Amino acid sequence: MNIHDMQRCIEDNLATRLAAQVPLLGGGDATDHTDGAAGRENGQGTQMQPECRPDLLDRSDVRAVYAGVASDTFNKAFAYGGGLPLADTVAAVRSFFGGHGAPYTWWLGPLSGAGDGAGEGEDIPAALAAHGFAAGEVETGMYLPLADAELEEPAPTPGLDIRVVHDAEGVTDFASVLAANWNPPDGEVLRFYRCAAPALCSPGCPATLLAAYLDGQLAAAAEVYRTASGCLAAGDAAHLDVAGVYNVCTLEAFRRRGLGSAVTRAALLHARQAGCRHAVLQASGEGYRVYARLGFRDVGRFVECVPVD
After folding, report:
1. 298 contacts 139 by C-beta, under 8 angstroms
2. How many Cα neighbours within 13 Å face the side chain of 309?
3. Residue 112: its pLDDT value, please?
């Protein structure tokens, strides 16, 4: 697999995972964006906000997802496919999220104008500055040939129990670890996973959550999302062969004990057992060395663009 294919695996996995929030939460097609923020009436005519009401904007130039919660952790625009002036794409993104009254960010990868990796085309994050966006977090796209990776843990951590989540209680534990990245913990993260729990626990869901417990205490979490690469081995039929690794988190009291590496390794092993041959992720500065030690290689950058006006 060449670097372009690796980048495509990362971007396709991320875009598919974001769009999957709509069916995951029971939403429909994005056909009307004018009333997304409105509630429904109860028997007394009083407006009641629905628990989660997701929406999708799916265009040739951009994809955007409103997850039904007030959090840019989930509400994202992704990529810029060109074909239309950037100003028109920006207007569509602003109108979509403005109709929902929702915070959001816009992620761009190396194949959609983040500036390096493919080394082609306009630097879209820089161009967005003229449209009221600022470059925020920058993450490194990384790729691992999962089928051949060495993933055996050199020294298992005593008392560590990493479980694949199968029920609502496990989803709540996973969400609690993720929400604790904010102080105080982000209630919108908890609300999103409360809404998504039934679908996440259903057979055949391409998303798998893992929760890690150390000496019986909740300590860390990770997610795997599986997609198809389109890069088939000889004789293979199309299947979900790309594992995107997301939301690798460790609670503060348990950090610097190797749990991030352990839960990532467990996620990768689970994905390989499910038939995945490729693993991809976007690494923060703190996580880069962890993933490099597991064999991931740098294949480009992802830039988060934040609306500032």
Report:
1. no
2. 9
3. 79
**Is 26 in the same domain as 13?**
yes
Cα–Cα nearest to 250, from 203, 289, 297, 218: 218
Structure tokens at 264: 């990532």
pLDDT given for residue 230 in this prediction: 67
Show the CA angle centred on residue 65, arms to residues 64 and 68, nearest 5°.
150
Pairing of strands 63-66, 207-214: unpaired
Number of alpha carbons in the 13 Å side-chain half-sphere of residue 46: 2
183 vs 116, residue with greater confidence: 183
Which of 142, 158, 188 is the C-terminal boundary of a domain? 142
Phi and psi at residue 156, to the nearest 5°: -55, 140
Q: How many domains does the chain have?
A: 2
Gap between the Cα atoms of 118 and 120, Å rounded: 6
Q: Does residue 49 belong to any structural domain of this protein?
A: yes
The mean pLDDT of 280-289, rounded to a whole number, is 92
| Res 234 pLDDT > 60 | no
68 lies in the same domain as 185: no
* pLDDT tens per residue, range 51-102: 678 999 999 999 999 999 999 999 999 999 888 999 999 999 999 999 999 9
Domain residue limits at 176: 146-297
Burial class, 159, CB count within 10 angstroms (exposed 0-12 / middle 13-18 / buried 19+): exposed
| Class of residue 212 by CB neighbours under 10 A (exposed 0-12, middle 13-18, buried 19+) | buried
Rounded Cα gap, residues 223 and 217, in angstroms: 19
